Amino acid sequence: MKAIVVEQNGPPEHLRYQEVPEPCPGPDEVLVRTTLTSLNYADVQARRGGYEAGSPPPFIPGLDAVGVIEALGAGVEGLRVGQRVAVFTSGGSYAEKVLAKAVLTYPVPDELSDEAVSGLTALVTAYNTLTWAGRLQQNESVLVHAAAGGVGSLAVQMAKALGAGLVIGTVGHPAKAEFVRGLGADAVMGYEGFAERVLEQTQQKGVDLILDSVAGEVFSQGMRCLAPFGRLVVYGHASGQAGSFETRPLHRQSKAVIGYSSGHYRRNRPGLLRPTVEAVFALLRSGKIRLQVGARFPLEQAAQAHTLMESRQSTGKILLYP
Q1: Would you say 178 and 203 are in contact if contact means Cβ atoms under 8 Å apart?
Q2: What is the spatial distance between Cα 84 and Cα 164, in angstroms, rounded to a whole number?
Q3: Contact 97, 30 (CB under 8 A)
Q4: What secondary structure does DSSP assign to 116-183, as a single string?
Q5: Which helix (H) or strand (E) holds 266?
Q6: Which of 198, 225, 241, 244 has the smallest CB count inside 10 Å?
Q7: Which fold has domain 122-262?
Q8: What is the tens place of the pLDDT at every residue in 63-72?
Q9: CATH 3.90.180.10 domain locations along the chain
Q10: Model's pTM, two decimal places?
């Protein structure tokens, strides 16, 4: 079968489209013929060598896929050959066929298309940062960083669907602002001086919940506009820099800084993700949220897809088709 392989860490040119051995499902695994896979920024960082837990080259990148079950390993129950599923893959997802643990394999409802449920990592991350980690309550205000990206574009929609009040999005380029407003954001702004602008938008109260995938100075500014009793959820470090903050406001104003990683749940508590996937599928079926597809590439053009993601010019999810 064909797959994309990271031959060595570095630029997109190190992604190679080549023949690799077809995988065979082991106990409690399924083999899925891929119909599409999605890009996540974690794929870019893994290719660069930026994730401490990333695989050493050569490896197949990618976290999730949609496809049809071709074979079941020993002990798999509740799934069948020919069933359409979305999966978190055991290995990389940039391949014509992938393996997934049965516990991380989710049947796709008939009324949802493959593209509708693509980007499983982004869907789960957006929902869990708002709910599990962020503890969003009715009418609370939310600030979503990188609001035009894969997770951010979903988080803006989900926040509104889950009953948030004021929803603010930040973007890295003014051209993305209209896209984010179209998702339901009440206000959109750039990163420069955003803390002061958020305070202006909230009558100096600050926001109740911040979703931060950027870290660095963005995190530090976020702490300045986080309301008393507010939660700041960190789920990435796209800036490449760590954030820092003063601890005294945490106990003086009952603020909280919370970390979240869908990958950590996949590896250590995979069974806890199924209720989230079911909730997300229900939101998709209701029409309250929609996964925004910004670009589509054939699998062999994965390098071009990575280049687009790194350019910061894309919006929504980028998809690869075998």
Answers
A1: no
A2: 33
A3: no
A4: GG--HHHHHHHHHIIIIIT---TT--EEETTTTSHHHHHHHHHHHHTT-S-EEEE-SSGGGHHHHHHT
A5: helix 262-268
A6: 244
A7: Quinone Oxidoreductase; Chain A, domain 1 (3.90.180)
A8: 999 999 999 9
A9: 2-119+291-321, 122-262
A10: 0.95
Strands 2-6 and 256-259: unpaired
Which fold does the domain 2-119+291-321 belong to in CATH? Quinone Oxidoreductase; Chain A, domain 1 (3.90.180)
> Quick one: 221 exposed, middle or buried, by C-beta within 10 A (0-12, 13-18, 19+)?
buried
Angle at 275 between CA 108 and CA 258, to 5 degrees: 125
**Cα(279)–Cα(4) distance, integer angstroms:** 32
Residue 124 tokens, joined: 């789960």
Tell me which residue has tokens 């903050």: 245
Alpha-carbon distances, residue 261 vs 42, 176, 234, 235 (angstroms): 11, 26, 9, 6
Query: What is the residue type of 221?
Result: Q
Amino acid at 283: L
Instruction: Give the tens place of pLDDT for each residue, 1-59.
Output: 999 999 999 999 999 999 999 999 999 999 999 999 999 999 999 999 866 546 889 99
| Residue 210 one-letter amino acid | I
Single-letter amino acid code for the residue at 192? E
Handedness of CA 213, 297, 38, 48 (dihedral sign): negative
CA distances from 32 to 88, 93, 128, 164, 176 (A): 11, 10, 26, 37, 35
pLDDT at 53: 47
pLDDT digits (tens, 9 = 90+) for 206-245: 999 999 999 999 999 999 999 999 999 999 888 888 888 8
